Amino acid sequence: MSQSHAAQHVHHELGFWRKYVFSTDHKIVAIQYLITAMTMAVIGGILSMLMRYQLAWPSMLSPTLGKLMPDAFAGGVMKPEFYVSLVTMHGTIMVFFLFTAVLTGGFGNFLIPLQIGARDMAFPFLNALSYWVFLLSCIVIFSALFVTTGAPLGGWTGYAPLSAVPEAGPGQGTGVTLWITALALFTVSGLMGGLNYITTILTMRTRGMSMMRLPLTQWSLLITAILGLLAFPVLLAAGILLMFDRMGGTSFFVPAGIIMNQMPIAHSGGHPLLWQHLFWFFGHPEVYIVVLPAMGMASDILSTFCRKPIFSYRMMVYSMVAIAVLSFVVWGHHMFVSGMNPFLGSVFTLTTLLIAVPSAIKTFNWLGTVWGARIRFTAAGLFAIGFVSMFVSGGLSGIFLGTSAADIQLQDTAFVVAHFHLVMAIAPLFAAFGGLYFWFPKMFARFMNETLGRIHFWLTFIGVYCVFFPMHVIGIGGQMRRIYDPTQYMFLVPQQPVNVFITIAAFILGAGQLIFLFNFFFSIFAGKRAVERNPWHATTLEWTAPTPPGHGNFGEELPTVYRWPFDYSVPGEKEDFVPQTVPATVVAK
Amino acid sequence: MPIVVEERRRVSPPPPIQPAGHGGDGDFGDSGAAFPISKGQIGIWILLTAIIMLFAGLSSAYIVLRGVPSWQNIELPSLLWPNTAVLLLSSLAVELSRRAIRRNDLQSMKRWLAAGGVLGLTFLAGQLAAWRQLARAGVYLPSTLQSSFFYILSGLHGLHLLGGIAGLSIVLVMALRNRLSAFRYEPLKLCSTYWHVMDALWVYLFLLLLLS
Amino acid sequence: MADGSGPGRVTSSGIALAGLLLILILASLYLFIAQPYWFPVLASEHGGRIDSLFGTVLVVTGIAFVLVQGALGLFIARYGANGNERAAYWHDNPRVEAILLITTAVILTVLVFMGQRVWASVYFADQPQNATIIQITGEQFFWNFHYPGSDGQFGRTDTKLITSTNNIGLDRNDPVAKDDVVSVGVMHVPIGKPVRVRLRSKDVIHSFFLPNFRLKQDAVPGMAIEVWFTPTRAGQYEIACAELCGLGHYRMKAALTVDESEEKFNEWLKMAAEQQ
Question: How many CA atoms lie within 13 A of A281 on its CB side?
């Protein structure tokens, strides 16, 4: 059969557009996701640089910026509404259009068929469509930055009634409409992708690839896709109701009797907390949708460069499942001081600290992987190690926030910002960088420059800790989130030097990423050629495919799997790794 | 020097050779590797799960807001009752179509499928008429919380049903081109699954609105 | 060792990373022990319990932080690749796993219970009877403080009566409202006496944040939410809004004065009443 299939794959040669642009090949779709997500990352990053600039030197006269962005700067000074819209757009772009897209859309698409031994996704056309809808959603959210009435300023969390009543502020008109539309499109794109990821992993594994022989990357992508399936539609539901509140005169989230700008707003019966419940019921699984693939990828890359099996593969799988299940019952920890019933506060504290247990197990297992290893300090390996450090730092600060009574003081301060950046942005970023350095040769048949990669790592590692570690402390000091000018408060003025330090560190960190961008794009065209199939001496199936894999991935014969993916440093073996496709050699004694 | 026998846990002999045609390539209509459920089946249930979660989110909003003091029940348009019967009949028609193809009765299959589609369209027309009924009674989208939910829930359901009708049409065209048989009718199976769930979803939504 | 036991090669990358992790540990110890920037000075009775809880969590997470980041650094430094040497092949230890799992769960459960005690003392304790009661209405972008006056009763408020000089729509014709005081942006409370605040919002969600008092509660339109605290330290403090409420969120501050005595507080109240 596989031979006739191979025959079917000897197509007439596709033209440039069908082959590289409107392709249904999962590898092309993956690279499209990667490049688009990287573009969104640059945009989101620039927004954060502007935010940090304002925070360090509030209301500084900036004639150059004022000339570049006259609508955002009044008389050379940043407008407060622009600052808050920066906050909103930065968060929205990074959470959805960078992290969710790059990890599941980018790496998921590239790796799933290759690592399970399939020729493509289950529904290739739908898969390609998911990218184009994603691109459309990117264009819509990007356009929200340029709307004359202002970009949305409700935060990425879009709490009602601020987001439900257009009169509540500049940008809350068309800006919010575009925001909701972009997220709805993103949800549809995600569903089309998730359909593929789940179906492919379940039904298209090659001979011998049982579930417990899957790389952790695959487990994480499967679990994440299921999470997305269950969580994103609830966001869509909330968005639909919000849209009707804004345009249809309904009152799901807006109570009666509110007054804005001295004018009564005609609504009745709605409840603002309903938005929060719906949003966070989605929102909490969403943060695990971001971090689980990162955990899976980092685990596999770590194992590869430690030349040692991941410690307790079984518990790694079970803990990911536990995290996914528990993620649906912790959402109230975002709402401890929201006015919800305090009894729920107690319940959610319990469930939140419970979810820390499987995360702790994973941390011990990463440590157990590094213990006794023989580490190869490639750029990819360094980033995988860095992931562990970042996740530990971010995860531990979560314990403060999960304890409801302690959260009273820390809620909505920079402490929360530090926590979620480390655990949901930086740790996944490290995993993504590790993944890019690692799989780049397979994707592009070239290597990224190792030296530049290592420099990138050291700069980023030091940079992110300089930016986000001190942030915990100013949060303890009481600096609120989303504040245009902390120096308005006397009690925050003594901390202002820390804001300056963080901003300068952020600028250096941001500049350091240019090294990566240069390395990435330069290497696609002029990097050292990668001819060998398995430059890193790894065990998983993608490294048995040609470099780069052609359409159909594996040539005439699909691989057969005989072992799990962690046979590194097996005693008695000739090499320090045994690929999954190598059968057992049994010799009579 | 003898090579050590591997631990049993790490390596096991490969599974029995699959018959030709199953190499891990999920094929249209056939199951891939060793997984007992076909790609199409999994795909349709994933889609249905997402749709169910959408309505679950809306339902939970409904239940929460049901408790607010300003809640007012509206009188649901009387057309909904016969309309629901029409939808149930359409499900019956689609089911009969599926059974017809199982015994290779292509004529009946096409007839029942077309009937199902027509009944589905009738239902949608009926929903629009029910909306008109309600509007004539002076109850619009923003009138009360329950009316808002009624229009939105029935509207969203209708949109999804329209998608189901599109699916039915595609299957009908396939049938007219003789692409279906008693051994290859997965598209019809998938369509009927989707259709029955949409039917059940409407019954659920109707009850939710009724029993408030 | 060729068979994977024993240390690998100590590499420059390993030392560098270990060094950075050590600096991280030292810096965090400095920040969290020497506390160059820390919580604002404590001025409430229940706040002490919250600070203690924070301290406990800090010790627990601090120890975990030092141990884990330290172990990571140590292993990175010690186990660098060394030619063709194999790593150790072991990859499971159910006993150790179980011990770690149970220990973590136990520690976290203890934290849950400790936290619960503090949470309950804030939210499930009985309302204090002799409290100063203030109705606080947040709006874009300032805080209104409504005092009931000597009759202890709040005058009727109605949104239809809201004007630019009557932010909360107080019905001045209501006999009970004659002695009410509505103060914009300025809040006074006497020291040592519990304060019950009833939080409302006119437009969007705001959050009443008293950093020195370890108090934070969202003000949600359509809801009237009550929280209480007891000030224990006289002085001037700042009130902030802690929930994004629009472009002016950053300047939605107010001033809280804890008067050294009930007399001083009543003096202020009288003065404020004259200005109504």
Answer: 23
Distance, in Å, from the CA atom of A532 to the CA atom of A426, rounded to the nearest integer, reads 32
Q: Are B109 and B175 in contact (CB under 8 A)?
A: yes
Burial class (CB in 10 A: 0-12, 13-18, 19+), C95: exposed
* Nearest chain A CA: its distance from B192 CA (Å): 19
* Burial annotation A458-489 (CB, 10 A radius, 16+ → b, else e): bbbbbbbbbbbbbbbbbbbbbbbbbbbbbbbb
> Which one, of C59, C72, C88, lies nearest residue C24 by Cα?
C72
Beta bridge partners of C208: C217, C241
Q: Which of residues 125-144 of C touch A (CB under 8 A)?
A: 139-140
Distinct helix (H) and strand (E) counts, chain A? 18, 4
Q: Is A7 on the interface with B (CB under 8 A)?
A: no
Read off the tokens for A124. Answer: 């290739």
- Closest Cβ–Cβ partner in C101, C220, C245 for A361: C101
Q: How many domains are there within chain B?
A: 1
Is residue B29 in a domain?
Answer: no
Given a cut of 50, whether residue A419 has pLDDT beyond it is yes
Q: What is the pLDDT of residues A47-100, one digit of tens each?
A: 999 999 999 999 889 999 999 998 899 889 999 999 999 999 999 999 999 999
Q: ipTM for the complex?
A: 0.96
Would you call C38 and A476 a contact, using CB atoms and an 8 Å cutoff? yes
In a domain, B47, yes or no: no
Q: How many other C-beta atoms are found inside a 10 Å radius of the C-beta of residue B143?
A: 19
Torsion sign (Cα): C170, C173, C177, C178: positive
Best of A259, A340, A493, A567 to disrupt the C interface (most C CBs within 10 Å) is A259
Give contacts of A194 with chain B, Cβ < 8 Å: 46, 50
Confidence of residue A137 (pLDDT cuts 50, 70, 90): very high
CATH of the domain at B172: 1.20.120.80
> What's residue A522's pLDDT?
98
Of A260, A353, A490, the CB nearest to C111: A353
**Contact flag A356-C108 (C-beta cutoff 8 Å):** yes
SS3 C220: coil
Whole-angstrom distance, CA of residue A161 vs CA of residue A364: 43
Amino acid letter, A431: A
Rounded CA gap, A458 and C77, in Å? Answer: 15
Q: Do B23 and A2 touch (CB under 8 A)?
A: yes
B33 with A277: Cβ contact below 8 A: no
Its CATH architecture, for the domain A23-256+267-544, is Up-down Bundle (1.20)
Segment C203-256, tens digit of pLDDT = 999 999 999 999 999 999 999 999 999 999 999 999 999 999 999 999 999 999
Pairing status of strand C181-184 against strand A258-260:
unpaired
Q: Domain of residue B107: give its range.
A: 79-210
B8 within some domain? no
pLDDT in tens, C137-165: 999 999 999 999 888 899 999 988 998 88
Q: So where are chain A's domains?
A: 23-256+267-544
Query: pTM of the entire structure?
Result: 0.94
Cα–Cα nearest to A492, from B148, B187, C175, C251: C251
Residues of B in contact with A584 (CB under 8 A): 5-6, 11
Question: Residue A570: its chain B contacts at CB < 8 A?
Answer: 6
C40, A476 Cβ separation under 8 angstroms: no
CA distance A555 to A547: 12
Q: How far is B108 from chain A (nearest CA, A)?
A: 31
Chain B residue numbers with beta carbons less than 8 Å from the beta carbon of A123 are 39, 43
pLDDT recorded at residue A343:
95
The residue ranges of DSSP E strands in B38-197, in sequence order, are: none
